């Protein structure tokens, strides 16, 4: 069975390849694919290696998917009314 760190490394490489290819929708569909693939990897990392290393994986994912995270944060702020 593969270690989650290896698969997260492949996920990072996949995200770099996806970012290089041209896109008509500003890469949003690719971001959704990365989120769908990355969430189970992140859960697996938390389960296998604990909170500290899982948090590192979460930070890596947020650094790569910065615009979806930013728009999610704006949506949360609007919903909370602040």
From TrEMBL:
<protein>
    <recommendedName>
        <fullName>DUF2484 family protein</fullName>
    </recommendedName>
</protein>
<feature type="transmembrane region" description="Helical">
    <location>
        <begin position="53"/>
        <end position="76"/>
    </location>
</feature>
<dbReference type="InterPro" id="IPR018919">
    <property type="entry name" value="DUF2484"/>
</dbReference>
<dbReference type="Pfam" id="PF10658">
    <property type="entry name" value="DUF2484"/>
</dbReference>
<feature type="transmembrane region" description="Helical">
    <location>
        <begin position="6"/>
        <end position="23"/>
    </location>
</feature>
<keyword id="KW-0812">Transmembrane</keyword>
<keyword id="KW-1133">Transmembrane helix</keyword>
<keyword id="KW-0472">Membrane</keyword>
<feature type="transmembrane region" description="Helical">
    <location>
        <begin position="30"/>
        <end position="47"/>
    </location>
</feature>
């Amino acid at each position: 069975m593969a270690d989650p760190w290896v698969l997260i490394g492949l996920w990072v490489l996949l995200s770099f390849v996806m970012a290089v290819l041209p896109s008509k929708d500003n890469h949003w569909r690719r971001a959704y694919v990365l989120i769908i693939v990355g969430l189970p990897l992140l859960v697996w990392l938390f389960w296998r290696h604990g909170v500290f290393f899982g948090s590192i994986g979460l930070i890596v994912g947020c650094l790569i998917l910065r615009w979806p995270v930013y728009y999610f944060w704006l949506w949360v702020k609007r919903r909370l009314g602040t």
